[in-house]
Amino acid sequence: MRVRGFKKTVLGVAAAVLLPLGVSVVSPPTASAAFDPSGFDFWVDSPVMGPIKSRIFRAADGNTNRVVYALDGMRATENISGWENDTNIAQVLTSWNINVVMPVGGPSSFYADWAAPSSFFGLPAGAGSSANTGSGATEVLGAGPGKSYRYDWESFLTNQLRWALRDRLGFNPYRNGAFGLSMGGSAALTLAAYHPDQFSFAGSFSGYLNISAPGMRELIRTAMIDAGGYNVDSMAPPWGPQWLRMDPFVFAPTLVANNTRLWIAAGSGLPMEADLQAPFGVAADRLLRGSPLEALALANTRAFQVRMDTLGARNVVYSFPNAGLHAWTNWQDEAYRMVPDLSANIG
Could you read off the pLDDT of 88-97 as tens digits, one per residue? Predict the structure, then answer.
């Protein structure tokens, strides 16, 4: 009864906020997932970051021509991708005869080449103790990925990993796809913009696609501190060339000129039925965190859409479902919708 009452309360609040905007509730199907034994670990050395693991899932028909990279979000872990842990998209993609590459790790990295290892106040990694409280604010002075060394993710994905996949597995290094959620969505567009020979398709789910908008840098700063204790100033100096290079709103003309096929999506901030069917505490946390984050992603994504429209872009599919939080329930269903278009534009 408490859960049903909570669902009614949440839906009532959400409806009061969103129905005036013309938003309604939908209930797409969901699936559960975890470690998938059909995948295998693929280790490649980065000259800057050391050994990096990816999880590989082979296409059902055995082809090596069709390849997609699935990029994680800001809370990426060092042992498994969220796409494997929280969705069944690997099985869906392989059934479409697409090989799947899931890079593992890189929390808060935006899959970028950082200016320096993450640090605060000039103190080296490990200068302070870290407490496992669930908040990255307690880890700002701790050691770890991107702190004990400099993140070098863009170079790794487009050089060391790309050619290792070709040389060791025979994977096609050209006309690949890339998609991701949140920071991974922003990164997918960045990779496609600057490496058009490698990526012919890019998908962004709830991405931050206008990071130079007023207030966005400080919002990202707060999110990166919470997601592992990272310093945005170590990633790129404010408003300099390196920062602007990462902003999809800024490099949108490059995506148009490349004619990269894009799938751009963001949810409404309204919970899906699957969100409300979670245990009470999980559902409450998912709504309180996921609704404002998705609202921000939606605003960024709509701004990017306007920018692309002013450029006369004809290479984009937009998807704005009536329900969806900043949560795996939303991203999994969006990936389902994207797969046919992805399949038609890689290889």
Answer: 999 999 999 9
